[in-house]
Design a protein that fits this description.
nine-stranded mixed β-sheet; 2 domains; binds iron/sulfur cluster; two-stranded parallel sheet; DNA polymerase, domain 1; alpha/beta
Length: about 400
């Protein structure tokens, strides 16, 4: 038995190495402006200190610059008035504090706002702000890749080729740019309400196929001397990259959401093709050992309701059986059709029946209200509309 456990651990380690090697093949270009100045956004504290030491700055300078970038939201060194003028000029000569460029922004009647952001090399990704029921709260949904390799059948982004991974600076930069748009600087502290109160890594791409950059961005979001978001307010959504789920839990301790969408391998193999590699049994086992999950921090299972495909009473009962004993909740998501999609939305009656079965088994099962229906709200639609596509990476 111990031999088997070691073999499984070795396999996981080999698989993690394979995933990380593939991630590197789709690395972003260097975070430098055309004039060679380095973008400080996305560097860890240690990397920031090293960059500043390179131009002869003392170690305390990194703390000051960090405060200006992530607490005050400054993008101009001239604003960093705790630094003497000649210091500010030295910094401006070598560095920038970048933001992605807003290529398109749409605001829906329900105040959902969607951006298509452009990065230095012209690649684009989408970010969405979803206001909460309480007016002073809301979630920012950020992308982790440009396109995606995974081709989930119901997902519009899945029809786009993977162009590349986003860097940590590009991931956290989406949040910073969204915050600029709402003027929420300096960073609210403690229990002060925040308009941008939660972050979900649920936009374009599979975040666990870009783990290092995502982890770098998440650490910046959580840093108490900057944005200071608690780990309870950050959720990573995965389609089930089992070998990386442990690392996510152990190293970041953020909330986990799993794009489940089907409760039998035959159907999930079709809807979420990654299931062929990491089938339901392995996925649910990884959920059961996810560090830090508890009744106070439940794992969210995302379930898109597809008419006549996965919305029967039998599906609901099987879902309950699969997640029995897990601290879990189930988000039921009425499908948001996009042009050419092969699916229809489940009827309200089918959704209600499904929710009732899951609920009766003791799992909260909210039905996600459709948001931003009057804008191109399905993830990936803005980028397609803008006509930019990349080259697909091998899965
Ligand atoms: S649902 Fe997520 S993982 Fe699947 S294709 Fe869409 S972006 Fe990729």
């Amino acid at each position: 038995m111990p031999g088997e456990v070691t073999a499984a651990a070795d396999l996981d380690e080999a698989e993690r190495s394979r995933i990380l090697a593939k991630t590197a093949r789709f690395a972003p270009p260097p975070a430098r402006d055309a004039d060679g100045r380095l973008d400080l956004v996305g560097l860890s504290r240690a990397e920031l200190a090293a960059a500043l030491a390179d131009i002869g700055e003392a170690p305390f300078r990194a703390k000051q610059v960090w405060h200006w970038i992530y607490y005050q939201g400054a993008t101009d060194f001239a604003r960093m008035t705790t630094i003497a003028r000649d210091g500010r000029e030295r910094l401006a000569a070598r560095f920038v504090v970048g933001r992605p460029r807003e290529a398109t922004v749409q605001t829906a009647a329900d105040s959902t706002r969607k951006w298509l952001f452009s990065f230095r090399d012209g690649q684009q990704a989408e970010t969405v702000y979803i206001p909460g029921r309480e007016k002073d709260r809301g979630a920012v949904c950020v992308s982790s890749q440009v396109g995606c390799t995974l081709s989930c059948r119901f997902c519009h982004t899945g029809t786009q080729e993977l162009a590349r991974n986003l860097g940590a600076g590009e991931i956290v930069g989406q949040f910073l740019a969204a915050r600029d748009a709402y003027g929420e600087w300096p960073s609210p502290q403690g229990e002060t309400p925040r308009l941008l109160s939660t972050v979900v890594l649920m936009g374009m791409g599979e975040p666990l196929y870009n783990f290092e950059a995502v982890a770098g961005a998440v650490r910046i979001l959580m840093d108490p001397e900057g944005i200071g978001l608690s780990r309870r307010r950050i959720t990573l959504s995965t389609s089930g990259v089992v070998p990386m789920m442990d690392r996510c839990g152990a190293e970041l301790g953020i909330n986990l959401a799993v794009s489940l969408h089907a409760v039998r391998d035959e159907l999930r193999d079709e809807l979420v093709p990654l299931n062929r590699k990491y089938p339901l049994r392995e996925l649910l086992t990884a959920c059961r050992r996810y560090p830090g999950s508890s009744n106070a921090r439940r794992i969210t299972f995302e379930y898109i309701m597809l008419k006549g495909v996965n919305d029967s009473d039998a599906d609901a009962r099987e879902l309950v059986r699969l997640i029995a004993g897990l601290p879990a909740k189930v988000n039921l998501i009425p499908f948001n059709p996009w042009p050419g999609s092969p699916f229809a939305t489940s009827t309200p009656a089918a959704v209600a029946r499904f929710a009732a079965i899951v609920n009766a088994a003791g799992f909260s099962s909210p039905v996600r209200a459709p948001r931003g229906r009057d804008i191109l709200a399905a993830c990936g639609q803005l980028r397609t509309a803008s006509g930019r596509q990349g080259t697909r990476g091998a899965a």
